[in-house]
Design a protein that fits this description.
The chain is α/β, with parallel strands linked by helices. The chain has helices at residues 16-24, 48-57, 71-81, 96-105, 150-165, 182-188, 197-200, 205-219; strands at 3-6, 30-36, 61-67, 85-89, 109-114, 132-136, 170-174, 192-195. Helix 4 (96-105) links the parallel strand 4 and strand 5.
C-alpha cells in the first residue's frame, strides 16, 4: 500500500512537536522535511539544527528533500543531523551517480528528484543506483500549489521502467495531492505520497492522514 508522508513545511512551527505527534498517531513511518536555500528555489526553510531537533522528538524516518544548489556539501551534514534518507535534484547534480553513492556511503538512502519540466529519461543511467525517485507534481518552492497532471504520466513511465528492469526503487510524489486525485496517484504507481497543506491545514491532521491511508488502500482495489 502507498504510504502517506506528512510534510512539515505546512506545519505550525511554534508547536512542531505537537504537530508531529498528531500524525504519528495515524501510524505513519516517514516524515517529509523540505530544505530550501533561496537560490535553487525562491524560498528559505529549515537547516540542520531543525532536523537535529526533530530527530530528538521522533523515531519516524526522516525524509529530507534538498532543494539546494550544493547538495554534495550539505547532504552529509543533514545525515549527521538525523536524516534517514536524502533526495537531491537531478537539475543541480552534474555528477549525479557520485552524489547518490556518496549519500549511501554516509549511511542514508539516496533519492533523486525531478522538477515538472525534467524528463524521466534523464535518470536512465542511475535508476540502478538510487533508492527512490521523487516526482515533483508542482514547481518546487512553496506549499499549497495546484497539482500538475503531467506528473502522472511521468510516474507511469517510471513504474514501467522499474518493472521492465526488475529494480526496487520507490516512487515518491510531492505537490498538490488531495483527496480527489490521491487514487489516480496511487494507481499510477506511487509508493510514497507527500502531503503538507492537506494534512496540517486541516482541523484534524491525524484523521486526515487516516482518510488518505484508507483512500490509498481503496485505490488499489479499483481497476483503472
Amino acid at each position: 500500500m502507498a504510504e502517506i508522508l506528512p510534510s512539515i513545511l505546512s506545519a505550525d512551527f511554534t508547536r512542531l512537536a505537537e504537530e508531529i505527534a498528531k500524525v504519528e498517531k495515524a501510524g505513519i513511518s516517514i516524515l517529509h522535511l523540505d530544505v530550501m536555500d533561496g537560490h535553487f528555489v525562491p524560498n528559505l526553510t529549515i537547516g540542520p539544527p531543525v532536523v537535529s531537533s526533530i530527530r530528538k522528538i521522533t523515531k519516524l524516518k526522516l525524509d529530507v528533500h534538498l532543494m539546494i544548489t550544493d547538495p554534495d556539501k550539505y547532504a552529509p551534514i543533514f545525515i549527521e543531523a538525523g536524516a534517514d534518507q536524502v533526495s537531491v535534484h537531478q537539475e543541480v547534480c552534474p555528477h549525479l551517480d557520485r552524489t547518490l553513492r556518496m549519500i549511501q556511503s554516509e549511511g542514508a538512502k539516496a533519492g533523486v528528484v525531478l522538477n515538472p519540466s525534467t524528463p524521466v529519461a534523464t535518470l536512465a543511467d542511475v535508476l540502478d543506483v538510487t533508492d527512490y525517485v521523487l516526482i515533483m507534481s508542482v514547481n518546487p518552492g512553496f506549499g499549497g500549489q495546484r497539482f500538475i497532471p503531467n506528473a502522472l504520466r511521468k510516474v507511469r513511465a517510471l513504474d514501467a521502467l522499474r518493472k521492465e528492469s526488475g529494480l526496487q526503487f520507490a516512487i515518491e510524489i510531492d505537490g498538490g495531492v488531495n483527496l480527489e486525485n490521491l487514487g489516480d496517484v496511487v494507481r499510477a504507481g506511487v509508493d510514497w505520497v507527500v502531503a503538507g497543506s492537506l494534512v496540517f491545514h486541516s482541523s484534524d491532521p491525524e484523521a486526515t492522514v487516516r482518510q488518505m491511508q484508507q483512500l490509498a488502500r481503496q485505490a488499489l482495489t479499483v481497476s483503472v
